[in-house]
Amino acid sequence: MKVLVAVKRVIDYNVKVRVKPDNTGVDLANVKMAMNPFCEIAVEEAVRLKEKGVASEIVVVSIGPKAAQEQIRTALALGADRGIHVETDEEVQSLEAAKLLKAVVEKEEPKLVILGKQSIDSDNNQTGQMLAALTGMGQGTFASEVVVEGDKVNVTREVDGGLMTVSLNLPAVVTTDLRLNEPRYASLPNIMKAKKKPLDSMAPADLGVEVAPRLSTLKVEAPAARQAGIKVADVAELVDKLKNEAKVI
Amino acid sequence: MSILVIAEHDNSSLKQATLNVVAAAKAIGGDIDVLVAGENCGAVAEAAAKAEGVNKVLVADNAAYGHFLGENLGELVAELGKGYSHVLAAAGTTGKDFMPRVAALLDVAQVSDIIRVESEDTFVRPIYAGNAIATVKSSDSIKVVTVRPTAFDPVAAEGGSASVEQCDVVKDAGLSSFVKEELAQSDRPDLASAGIVISGGRGMQNGDNFKMLENVADLLGAAVGASRAAVDAGFVPNDMQVGQTGKIVAPQLYVAVGISGAIQHLAGMSDSKVIVAINKDEEAPIFQVADYGLVADLFEAVPQLEEELKKVL
Ligand SMILES: Cc1cc2nc3c(=O)[nH]c(=O)nc-3n(C[C@H](O)[C@H](O)[C@H](O)COP(=O)(O)OP(=O)(O)OC[C@H]3O[C@@H](n4cnc5c(N)ncnc54)[C@H](O)[C@@H]3O)c2cc1C
Predict the structure, then answer these.
(1) B284 lines ligand 1 (CB under 6 A)
(2) What is the gyration radius of the CA atoms in chain A, in angstroms?
(3) Are B294 and A238 an interchain contact pair (Cβ–Cβ within 8 Å)?
(4) Whether B232 and A217 lie within 8 Å, measured CB to CB
(5) Are B136 and A121 an interchain contact pair (Cβ–Cβ within 8 Å)?
(6) A175 to chain B: which residues are within 8 Å by CB?
(7) CA separation for the pair B288, B299 (Å, rounded)
(8) C-alpha B263 to ligand 1 mean position (Å)
(9) Which one of A17, A210, A230, B73 has the minimum C-beta count within 10 Å?
(10) Does residue B201 share a domain with residue B61?
(11) Is the keyword Transport in the record (chain B) (predicted)?
(12) Any idea what the CATH number is for the domain that residue B288 is in?
């Protein structure tokens, strides 16, 4: 079965984010970029499905600027077979991303689409669900276990109350949570091999989708900083402060 | 303007988060209807009808909604949502699951996890794990919005007298089915709405040691949380994770024990009123946000804390 994995290029999760002085956004100039951590988990899951003989081909797709090809190459080095790059320098919001991915799904006809549950830049947690709705597929969101059985996939989901397992008809959409797996690192030989794997590039217009954001960002500000507190000497002082100063116990 | 709020519940009781979302709806202004979709959820509908500021409660009581499957709820809410200017739900795992489907079916954007309402079409939300706060304006005719419950003070649970109407729209997408559920059983308060939270991190070393935190929690009537590292290591279950990708908490008092204070953890608790950190590393970043920091070995400090609390409580 064919598996499609969507990956996003985002700021590296270790980078300290800085808001631009003119409040138009976050400063991304000369900042280390990487594959969104949840997308790494999505790629890893697809590779494991291939290693188990469940998946036959892994196609990785990314929407974004030219440089997003780096993340596609990373996915190819991790074990994906082929890449699709939907190139655009415009801001692509979740609904547009879902529409672009829908067009890719219609072309590729994968049995399973795996995405990260959220990207750590916009923190939206929307694209996988939107894609599932637009393509009429079931969804297993926030997955911590994915088991393909015949024409169904059982997905264990991390929910507020604990864990919930659903059974979905294939084709289906899965979005990954942190505990699904621990992504591997790409080996040097695989990084070299990935350079020769096929990577198709296209524009949103080639997929018949117009990228037109519905949400406009009016301003971006730094969060209110917390005032630095004090160090207490021992537990007795801590309890005294909580009771008599902060009055929270 | 008319607003449809989707109730969060477990078929038997209304979750407090719904009252927070109704508060966000009030900040937008206009008539507020609440949809209770579930199975045998009549008691929830009655509770919703008593909430302050609610005009009408719609009850969609059907097996198709019993487990809140996103495919079915998505279709139901998209159909009902056409008659409203706004559709709101709590940004918990249920709302996060079905609301983007609603938005996609209505061909509108979703505004996720808002923390403030500026006007009927402009909302404030954290991005980059809360390291930046964006003000966004929606140009869509129907605004589909998820709300961070901790950012809005709940409306009163009693005093309202909304009408209750049955809604017989049945949407069973036939794409998914419920298999099983393993829900955490706890007599402690719910993490997301507890007044006091005490969380443990990798420094706890194992799951058994969380007993120390539970003892303190029981003295304080607190909920127990954890960092991702503690969950990943298998010390405690996933529903205890606090952070960017776990639960967002904003209690009166948050006690972080053996937690370093990574930005992803801070994203889930930095709006707490008072933060206490207990960590043996005086350089740990958690101390930069803590009101009261105690540099100590937690295996000494936490049992001492239990003893001290027994004296004063
Ligand atoms: C995409 C992504 C999403 C994430 N989401 C989340 C999230 O939602 N929530 C979250 O928490 N993390 C999240 N993380 C992980 C986060 O980056 C950190 O790795 C994690 O929070 C660290 O947990 P910790 O503080 O328990 O562990 P560590 O960073 O290892 O810190 C342990 C601390 O315990 C202290 N300690 C050890 N022994 C003792 C002792 N005996 N007495 C006192 N102190 C002691 C140490 O000094 C240290 O400061 C995410 C990461 C990524 C990449």
Answers:
(1) yes
(2) 21
(3) yes
(4) no
(5) no
(6) none
(7) 22
(8) 9
(9) A210
(10) no
(11) yes
(12) 3.40.50.1220
Pairing of the two strands B86-90 and B274-279: unpaired
CATH architecture of the domain A2-245 equals: 3-Layer(aba) Sandwich (3.40)
Residue identified by tokens 């990935």 is: A194
A75 φ, ψ (degrees, to nearest 5): -65, -40
Residue B106: its H or E element: helix B93-106
Question: Is this structure's pTM higher than 0.95?
Answer: yes
> Is residue B260 lining ligand 1, measured as CB closer than 6 Å?
yes
CB distance B245 to ligand 1 below 6 Å: yes
ipTM: 0.97
Longest Cα–Cα distance in chain A: 68
pLDDT one-digit tens code per residue, B45-77? 999 999 999 999 999 999 999 999 999 999 999
Three-state DSSP class for residue A13: coil
Sheet holding A199-202, edge to edge: A199-202, A82-87, A57-64, A2-7, A112-116, A172-176, A138-149, A152-159, A162-169, B176-183
H-type alpha helices, chain A: 37-51, 69-78, 94-108, 127-135, 188-194, 235-240
Alpha carbon distance B80, B170 (integer Å) = 11
End-to-end CA distance of chain B: 49
